[in-house]
Amino acid sequence: MLDYYNFDKSDEKDEKDVCLTSLPSVPPQDDHDYKPVIEGPNVSQEDVSPKLSLPKEASPASEALNSKDDPAVERLLVILDDEDSTQETVFQAYSDLPFPGVIHLSEKVRRRLFRRLSQVERKSVETMLRYLSVVDDMKAADIPMIAVEWNSAIAFTGRCFAKVTATEVNLAIRTWKEMEHEAKVRSGSVTFTILFDIATKAGKLVLAEMILKEMRARNLSLNRFARVGIIYYHGIRGDGDAIRRAYKSFVQAGEIVDTVVMNCVIASLIRAGEPLAAVNVYERMKAMDSSKTGTPIHAPGWKAVRELGRVLTRAALIYCNDPEGRQRVQNETSLAPNLRTYAIFIEHHVVETGELRQITALLEEMLFLGVPLHGQIFVKLFKGFAIHGGVRYTSWTRTRLESVWVALLAVLDRGTAPNVVVRRWMVVWAVKAFRKCHGRERALEVWAELSTRWKASAADEQAVSQMLSDALRKKPAGGDWG
Fold first, then answer.
1. 297 three-class SS
2. CB atoms near residue 472 (< 10 Å)
3. What's this model's pTM, rounded to 2 decimal places?
């Protein structure tokens, strides 16, 4: 058994198993006081278990488009062939087709269209509406959808906002019921993993447990992503020992540990009130990765991270009866801390401890290990100044805030960090930070400067304007200390 991270305190206890025959709708009231700080694992249509049956490859004849001479269809096909085309570009090309657009496409092209629209780094209202627009067209044309397409629809309805609430849970459950009861498409492990992920992030722990029991009642096996989700579930519950048991179960199931799994363990331990145990895991990650003799398997970028998860899932299946082969894959899998690792710890110090020195040390280590700079780091720093600045004797001073601001402008001007771009929450927290530490006039200057560098949608502009107008009208708590 892999024992790289032996932070287990106790043996796993047997739990009472109660099977369900159906899942109820979620009441609109929150039965748990839940405020997300660290995001858990992201489960999407791409996270398909190898046991889920996929459509067979189409024959060359069925590759042909239903409307061969339609230039709009030809343009869509060209864009789908371009792996670098954005989801927005794909959807715009699809929107140019006569309604309903899906009837002008072959089955295989429809599958490709759904797949491309489901491939997003983070789900949002915009990406959800694009995907569900095609779903509505499929319904209008009375064309059936397959399981992976329904799974993505569930994921979009439940995860389109940063904070998952009872509303999103209800929408996801409603979509699942439509999938099973109306479309007559049987749910698999992936479907219930997505539902479990949504329920957990909404703090609906009773519902999350019911979903797991429903999986057991249907004899559905847990896949890699479900096992990672269970680790995070116990973090939401605040049970450190259960986190350790869930991790031990993950390893004993023959799964291969990578940075994503360990990041989930770290986030879960912090949520359970064990930040020192999380730091211990972090130090073990660095030690184990530095001891590797071969070239570790890294996954730069969010697409590569998700693809690596699928690769490791297949590897665990291939080597389930070959411990030596599985260990070779484990030895070649990177355990190095990545951007997500540092973001978890920085968020913890920003929200919980206010320890700017700890954050500085983490940033220095990021640079030393060559972890690429990302815009979310600046967002978290500005958030820290908005929370802890503007009071006497704070280390979050006006001078340090200006240093962060100068560093951000330099990175933006040089264009050397492609992942540092001005987005909604960077604008919000930067203006709030300067309002708290400097005053209204300086905050307005910062807002004006960022507005010239922000390619915002009309919806984003309106939302940010509303938030910041309220913030600028209010007098910040505390004084204006530099």
1. strand
2. 15
3. 0.80
